[in-house]
Write a structure and sequence with these properties.
about 60 residues; mainly alpha; globular
Length: about 60
């Protein structure tokens, strides 16, 4: 279910909160995988903005 989680038209804070709630119900996964799934769900312009600020999911 985390693989299909995306920001859509929600604010970043709302998306991250929803993602965290899903994560808590699923149970522990690798921290790096969690970060990658979170980033994959961000709206394109959000991810692009993070990259321009030298923030990367790796």
């Amino acid at each position: 279910k985390l693989c299909h989680c995306s920001q859509g038209k929600h604010r970043v804070r709302e998306y991250v909160g929803y993602f965290e709630d899903l994560y808590d119900t699923i149970g522990p996964i690798d921290e790096q995988e969690k970060v990658l799934l979170l980033w994959d769900g961000f709206a394109g312009y959000i991810a692009a903005g993070l990259y321009t600020r030298d923030l990367h999911p790796e």
